[in-house]
Structures are given as C-alpha cells and as structure tokens.
C-alpha cells in the first residue's frame, strides 16, 4: 500500500516512522506540509517525496491511500478531497473540529457508496481498553452504571486554548466510552475548578466533563493538560456487580532511597505506542482486503457532536443536550 501523509508535525513524523518501519505491507511514498522544511526533514529518512500541497498529494497517481495528520481545522477539507478522489483516508482525531463539517463528510462518503474514512481513535486498539471491553461484553461487572476518567498531560503549548480540552483531548474519552458502553451520549455539562497557576492565564485548566448516556449511565472526565508530572490516562467503570479499571503501563517497582516508586509515562507516543502500531497495521490490512474496518466517519462525527455540545456547556454553564441524528443505515 503506497501511502501519502499530510502534516508532518509530531504525530505525522511518528506515523511516517511507524508506516515505514513497523507496519508490514505499507510504504510512505509522499508527504506534504505547509512547512516545506519540516516535510523535507520527515521525508528524508523514509525515502519519500515532498509534494508541495495537500491537494497535489491527494491527486498524486502513486498515492493509493492518505494519512491526514495536519491540524484539526484542516482535516475536513483534506478528508473531503480524498473522498472525491475515491482514495481511502486515515484521519487523526478529531475527524473535524465542527460537527457541520462532519455531516458533509458523512454525506460525501455515502454518495460515494463505499467506506473510505477511518478515524485515528487509537484507544480502541490499546490492550488495556480492549481487556475492559471484553469484561463488559461478557457481563463481568453487570450493567455499567458509572465511569470515572482522567486525561492528564504534563503541559500544553500557549496555542492550546480553553475549547481544546473538549475538542482535542476529551474527544478520546468520548469515543472510547461510546465504544465501551455501546451507546451514545445524551447530554453534557462542564464544571471548572480553580485553574492551575502553573500555566498560561488564558487557559481554563483543569475542566471536568459530566456526561450522561442515553440509558442514564454517568461518565465524569477530568481533563488536566498542565498537570506537570506526566501523561496519565485513568479509567474505571463501575457496574452493578463490580468494577473494572484500565491498567497503568507496565513499569518496574523501584525501591531506593527510602521510597518505592514506578515511573510515570511522559507523552502519548510512549503511552500508546503499541496501540498505534496495531491501529495502522489493521488499517493497512483492511484496505488490502476491502474497506477500512476501524472507527468510521460516523464515529468521528458522533464524537464531535459531543465535543461541540461540551464547548457550549462550558461557555453557558448549562447541561447541553447532545443532538445526534439517527445513525444512517450505511454505518450500521
Ligand atoms: P503538530 O502541530 O505537531 O503538527 C501538525 C502539522 O500539520 C504541522 O507540521 C503543520 O505545519 C501541519 N499543517 C497544518 N495545517 C496544514 C495544512 N492545511 N496542510 C498541510 N499541513 C498542515 O500537531 P500534532 O500534535 O502532530 O497533531 C496533529 C493531529 O494529530 C491533530 O489532529 C491532533 O489532534 C492529532 N493527534 C492525535 C494524537 C493521538 O493520541 N491520537 C496525538 C497527538 C496529535
Ligand atoms: C493530543 O492531540 C492527543 O491526541 C493526545 O493524546 C492528548 O493527550 C492531547 O491532549 C491532545 O492535545
């Protein structure tokens, strides 16, 4: 599978390396970025060509499938261009930052009559989350009633603003909880504690999302993106007869200098390295045998409808209903 990648930033570089080295049956043949120097630096070790624009890359006859790892607001136009060109596209989360753009993608893909879009919700490929899913599906804790989640980053840059905890960060929990619980969210509220003094005054951080599912289960998500100490992802589900908790990454317990301690992972590439490998391998395999089988454009759209409602909830202080249309038969 000859792949073209758009957006050679942090995760773009990671995915080029992964697709060139660890994923079998894939080769990155072309990359593009609005910063051509950055594109050249990422292209060189992979032996890929640098193409001037995203549009040229999508139209490039050698490119059979596209990976979009540009900034969120650029995703919609690039994914729509891939659909128009009839090329499969793996788009990093969020599929779109605005739900209306997601609807346009759903319409375009259905008009094309074939699934072309997969969204980079890699937690569905993480061994820990997959083990939780197995416990829930076999009824190991009875019906799930509550989920407690925390999504912590050590720091975020100055450009990270107060809508991003929902649109860019909690979107992971929103997707993975939709998947684990097997239902949609019905409403969301955002409450904000005192903000940390450790980062930029413009940013509301931390924030707490309080979500309710259609069946009445409750999910709380603490998003704290300048927690200083590490990249820490927590998830515990409380069911009628027990609880199940996401395991922390395996790390040795060190006893020294009067302390027993384990290291905390510092970034997403380390925390989810294996999940990204499985995600991209399964994507490439699915393309070779037909259509993408992972998180769909519907999943990307449904998650963005919730993040957009959460943005409104923070701004208004209200409990905001999640206004999701019926899932089209195409995605069932
Ligand atoms: P980044 O800022 O490091 O990289 C983005 C790159 O895209 C930059 O090099 C920028 O120049 C380029 N770019 C922006 N607009 C473009 C356009 N219109 N055409 C071509 N290139 C363009 O950001 P990042 O951290 O690598 O994030 C990129 C995407 O990946 C975001 O959607 C982000 O949410 C997602 N992401 C996902 C995960 C995950 O855990 N799955 C982790 C990090 C980032
Ligand atoms: C980033 O884009 C990611 O997806 C990371 O997994 C997340 O932890 C971070 O908050 C986002 O900005």
TrEMBL record:
Q: Name the InterPro entries on file.
A: Gfo-Idh-MocA_inositol_DH, Gfo/Idh/MocA-like_OxRdtase_C, Gfo/Idh/MocA-like_OxRdtase_N, MI/DCI_dehydrogenase, NAD(P)-bd_dom_sf
- Domain Gfo/Idh/MocA-like oxidoreductase N-terminal residue range list: 1-121
Q: What is annotated about its quaternary structure and interactions?
A: Homotetramer.
PANTHER family reported in the protein's UniProt record:
INOSITOL 2-DEHYDROGENASE (PTHR43593:SF1), PTHR43593
**Annotated source species:** Glycomyces mayteni
Q: Where is the Gfo/Idh/MocA-like oxidoreductase C-terminal domain?
A: 133-322
* Pfam families for the chain: GFO_IDH_MocA, GFO_IDH_MocA_C
Q: What is its EC number?
A: 1.1.1.18
**In UniProt terms, what function does this protein have?**
Involved in the oxidation of myo-inositol (MI) to 2-keto-myo-inositol (2KMI or 2-inosose).
Q: Which transformation does this protein catalyse, written as a reaction? A: myo-inositol + NAD(+) = scyllo-inosose + NADH + H(+)
The entry's protein name is Inositol 2-dehydrogenase
The alphabetized UniProt keywords are: NAD, Oxidoreductase
Family the UniProt entry places it in: Belongs to the Gfo/Idh/MocA family.
Q: Which domain of life is it from?
A: Bacteria
The broad enzyme category this protein falls into is: oxidoreductase
Keyword Disulfide bond on entry: no
């Amino acid at each position: 599978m000859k792949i073209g990648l758009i957006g050679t930033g942090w995760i773009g570089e990671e995915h080029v390396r992964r697709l060139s080295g660890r994923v079998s049956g894939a080769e990155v043949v072309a990359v593009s970025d609005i910063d051509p120097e950055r594109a050249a630096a990422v292209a060189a070790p992979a032996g890929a060509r640098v193409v001037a624009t995203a549009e040229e890359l999508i139209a490039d006859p050698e490119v059979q499938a596209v990976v979009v790892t540009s900034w969120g607001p650029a995703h919609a136009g690039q994914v729509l261009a891939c659909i128009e060109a009839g090329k499969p596209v793996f788009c990093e989360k969020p599929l779109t930052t605005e739900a209306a753009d997601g609807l346009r993608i759903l319409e375009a893909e259905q008009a094309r009559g074939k699934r072309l879009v997969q969204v980079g919700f890699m937690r569905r490929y993480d061994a820990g989350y997959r083990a939780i899913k197995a416990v829930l599906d076999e009824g190991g804790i009875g019906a799930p009633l509550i989920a407690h989640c925390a999504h912590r980053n050590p720091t975020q840059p100055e450009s990270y603003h107060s809508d991003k905890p929902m649109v860019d960060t909690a979107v992971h929990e929103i997707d993975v909880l939709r998947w684990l619980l097997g239902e949609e969210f019905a409403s969301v509220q955002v409450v904000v504690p005192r903000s940390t003094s450790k980062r930029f005054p413009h940013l509301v951080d931390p924030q707490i999302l309080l979500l309710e599912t259609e069946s009445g289960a409750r999910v709380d998500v603490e998003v704290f993106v300048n927690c200083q100490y590490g990249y820490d992802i927590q998830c515990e589900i409380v069911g009628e007869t027990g609880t199940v908790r996401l395991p922390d990454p395996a790390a040795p317990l060190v006893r020294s200098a009067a302390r027993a301690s384990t290291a905390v992972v510092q970034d997403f590439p380390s925390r989810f390295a294996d999940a990204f490998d499985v995600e991209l391998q399964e994507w490439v395999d699915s393309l070779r045998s037909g259509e993408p089988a992972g998180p769909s454009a519907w999943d990307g759209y449904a998650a963005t409808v919730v993040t957009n409602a959460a943005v409104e909830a923070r701004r208004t202080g209200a409990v905001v209903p999640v206004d999701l249309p019926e899932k089209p038969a195409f995605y069932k």
